Amino acid sequence: MRHTFWIALLMLGCFATASAATPSSKHVVVVVEENHSFDTVITQGGMPYLKSLAEKHTLLINYYANHHPSIGNYFTMTTGQTISTDDGYGGVVQDENIVTQLVAANKTWKMYGDSLPRPGYVGGNRRPYVKKHFPMAYFANVRDDEKQRMNLVPVEQFEQDLKSSQGLPEFSMVIPDMDHDAHDGTLKEADDWLRQYIAPLLENPDFQKDGVLIITFDEAAKSDSNHGGGHITTVVIGPLAKEKFADNTFYQHQSLLATIEDLLGLPRLKLVEKVPSFTNAFK
User: pLDDT tens-digit profile of 217-237?
Assistant: First the structure.
């Protein structure tokens, strides 16, 4: 599948060169889509809105998911390790995670869930909401702390927070449901949902100051197991990101976690201390 790298490079017309360091951001937003490969989304243009963002901003063209199925990827994004590859996992995660770091640094955060039944919900599937795509609902330091648990909110709160005087928290993770993440629904439905929530974010004055949006996929199509979870689309967007840029550095989901920590000035979790962050993506 390396031919797709050259297609993307020709499309964007540039190669990665090293930057000095990851900048600081007060608003980092991560959106995770589902189960489609780079070829389908970018090369074949299956999600036109997302492809338009990739053409304008930074596209990480050598990014691979860690696992099939979903849950191990979500845990890797937020803890630096797999925890489980059982999508029916019913345990409680005691390990250190991104919330550990955020709370210790007195940083604000929310996880916005499409079709989440109610704020603070840590129960099982209520389709089209599924718990396996909502990693913070497994974390002991969220489940056992009412204040932290109430940071799990329905996605409609994202729209409200964008318009409020307090604005978005310093870290936001936005998870579409199974009908809107390209898992059960179509790529068009996923792309339309993305436009609905992301277009207002990109126009938000606070985000335009120093915000960073990272859109990625949990895993590629099941037929692609390269590097564990296959070749996926990841785009870095915002005023700090390079424009019309393609980064050919090899990344996996540990690098997403490292990048979030670096952008927010958090210490790295031990499991991601030495992995590369998306340094090249920034100006």
Answer: 999 999 999 999 999 999 999
Q: pTM above the 0.85 mark?
A: yes
Q: Are strands 235-237 and 28-33 parallel, antiparallel or unpaired?
A: unpaired
Q: For residue 251, what are the CA distances in angstroms to 141, 178, 231, 269, 280?
A: 28, 26, 10, 17, 12
pLDDT tens digits, residue range 236-245? 999 999 999 9
Cα R_g (the chain), whole angstroms:
17
CATH number of the domain residue 188 falls in = 3.40.720.10
State how many domains the chain has: 1
Cα(74)–Cα(136) distance, integer angstroms: 9
Structure tokens at 267: 């210490």
The C-alpha atoms of residue 243 and residue 139 are separated, in whole angstroms, by: 36
- CA atoms within 13 Å, Cβ hemisphere of 3: 4
Distance CA 31, CA 197 (A): 10
Residue 120 lies in a domain: yes
